[in-house]
Amino acid sequence: MAAKRALITGVTGQDGSYMAELLLEKGYKVYGLQRHASYPNTSRIDHLLNNAKFPNFQTAFGDLSDSANIAAIIDKAEPDEIYNLGALSHVGVSFTMPEYTVDVTGLGALRILEAIHQLKAPTKFYQAGSSEMFGAVEKQTFQNENTPFNPQSPYAMSKVLAFHTTRIYRKSYNIFAANGILFNHESPRRGVSFVTRKITLGLSRVKLGLQDVLMLGNLNAKRDWGYSRDYVEGIHKILNYKTADDFILATGETHTVREFVESVAKQLGFDLAWKGKGLKEKGIDRKTGKKIIGIDPVHFRPAEVDYLLGDSSKARKLLGWKPKVNFQQLVEIMIKHDYDLMKKNLGKGHKLVTRHRFY
Ligand code: NAP
Ligand code: G4F
Hints:
Elements (H helix, E strand, L loop, with lengths): L4 E5 L4 H12 L3 E6 L22 E5 L5 H11 L3 E4 L6 H4 L3 H22 L4 E7 L23 H20 L3 E6 L2 E2 L8 H13 L6 E3 L5 E2 L2 E2 H12 L6 E4 L5 E2 H11 L4 E4 L6 E4 L4 E6 L17 H6 L8 H18 L15
Parallel strand pairs: 1-2, 1-4, 2-3, 4-5, 5-6, 6-11, 7-10, 8-15
Antiparallel strand pairs: 9-12, 13-14, 14-15
Helix pairs in contact: 1-7, 2-4, 4-5, 6-8, 6-10, 8-10
The structure holds NADP nicotinamide-adenine-dinucleotide phosphate and ligand G4F.
């Protein structure tokens, strides 16, 4: 039997890179949509690219903002499955470029679905929906597939647009088009401007004396954090279920950003104590008396999502999916990786975390 063919948008990202590995393991021929960049943006897939061990992996230059380019790639690659993981995915940044976010994160899905429709391609489509779509929830309890959306950012409203586009193309044209609604998932490949990775990298640097203080925003937001590798397995199950449907993937546990900081600090051997309130709040290492965490309002968002907690019982029941890695194990995986990474960079003037406004 001929190998199944998959196209992954966002293949250079966290989930895209794990998705490519999973599909290659399963014997797929994998095509990745790669944005052109003047300096390589392929660090997460370099081990797959031009590697004789992975003859079934290749990328093509493309962009979710270019309809003709997307249609041409689908026409040429003839994928059985498309995983639309590409997006401007940073909620904070989406406020600074709302139009671009709607274009790529929202209309990107429409462009792919319209190409599938026009080409009459027998292609299944997965849309990377987000728990951010729930936004400001009415009650601080579990969110499931029936919870209403109340988006709070250009990113979230774009994801709502893509979610409904996916449903409309499923219903109108009988395309196998499925939505995942994924709660936060992290890994050592997480982008460095998302809060978990910023904390694991930043506190590792503080521990190694490469940086004095880690500046953060809202410590009280609650997130349902899982492990990206577990979630790409769920995504594959969603697209290989007998019918196209919408599924939540989540751990069912929620923690504050503050708890994530505390857990990382403990792993690194700090004795963390919180002092002060609001913008004056700081985290002190009792062992040295030094301030290691501060608050900078630049990291606050114009509108915040305070509470996310997912009920993934539908996916657990129908897909047989459940996450393997829990909160504590996730922290351990990330801190082990990032402490070692920063240690290797000791003395090399590594400035990864501190330079950018959003880091
Ligand atoms: P990520 O690491 O930020 O990756 C985003 C990918 O999208 C990158 O490969 C990026 O390319 C690509 N991209 C950005 N703009 C593009 C454009 N105009 N055209 C084509 N590709 C473009 O995100 P992730 O964490 O892997 O998340 C994967 C998807 O799941 C995203 O759609 C995200 O919104 C969604 N999601 C993520 C989570 C989570 O917690 N991680 C939860 C729910 C939903 P470059 O490498 O060139 O920047
Ligand atoms: O890590 P974050 O930037 O992730 P956020 O906003 O929850 O979005 C992520 O998860 C979504 C799924 O729910 C995805 F759809 C989306 O693509 C992305 O992957 O921020 C988490 C929380 C927020 O409440 C934020 O205000 O951490 C808070 N936070 C506090 N200090 C910070 C910081 N966030 C960032 N990025 N940087 C800070 O210094």
